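User: Hey, quick favor. My workstation is busy. Could you predict this chain's structure for me?
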Amino acid sequence: MSRNYRSLFPNSFTMGNMLCGFLSILSSLEGNAITAAWLIVLGAFLDSLDGKVARLSRVSSRFGVELDSFSDFLTFGVATAVLVHAFELHSLGRWGWIVSGIYVMCSGYRLARFNLMASIEEKKKFLGLPVPVASMLLVSYVIFCYELFGQIEYREFVITLIAGVSVLMVSAVTYETFPENLGTRENRIKFLLLFVFVIALIIRPRLVLFPAVLMYVLLCFVRDLGSTLKGELRKKTRTVDRDGSDYVESDNKG
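Assistant: No problem, here it is.
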C-alpha cells in the first residue's frame, strides 16, 4: 500500500475530530448544550488517537500536523467558545463576545506557536496549556453543571476559567504528556493515576471529568511554578556566594 493511501487512516481520525467540531457548533445553535459538549469530548478522543495511529503506521508528516491544528482550532477553539457563549455568556452582550473572542484568539495563537515548534515525533512536554485540555476543562464544566444543576451555574467562575486557560495557553508553563512506557518510576506513577482516572470516568463520567482535568491543569502549573522559583533561588544563591568570595579575595589582597 502506498504512503498516500496509508495516510488516509490517521487522517480519518483528524477529519472525524473536525466533523465533531462542526456538529457541536450546530448543536449549540440549536440549543442542545449536552450534545454539543459530548461531541467536543468525542473530538478530543479522536484527536488523541490520530497522532499515535500516524506514528504506528509510519506516515507522520507536516501535512498531518497542519491538518490536525485546523481541526483542533475548529473543535477546541471555535466550537468550545460557541458552546460557552451560547449557554452562559450571551447575556453579557458585547462583554460576552469579548470573553469568547479572547479564548478563540489565544487558542489560535497557541496552535500557531505549536506548529512552529512542532516535530512529528512525540513530545515529552508541552509549552503552554494544550488547546484540547483547555477546551476539556470548559466543556467538562458544562457537563458537570448540567448533571448537578440542569444548567450552567456560577458565571463568575466560568469567566475565571476562560481567562485562566487563555493565559495558560499562551504562557511558557510546561505541561506533561502521558508516557509511552513504564521505564521509570515517574512514568509508572503516571500510568497508575491514568488507570484510576479511567476507572472513575467509566463509573461516573459526568462528575469525574471536570475535577480530573482541573487537577491536571493546576498540578502542572504549581509544579512549573515551583521549579521556576527554585531555579531563581539557586541563581541568587550562586550570585551571593560569588560576590562573597570576591569580597574575601579582595580583602586578603589588601
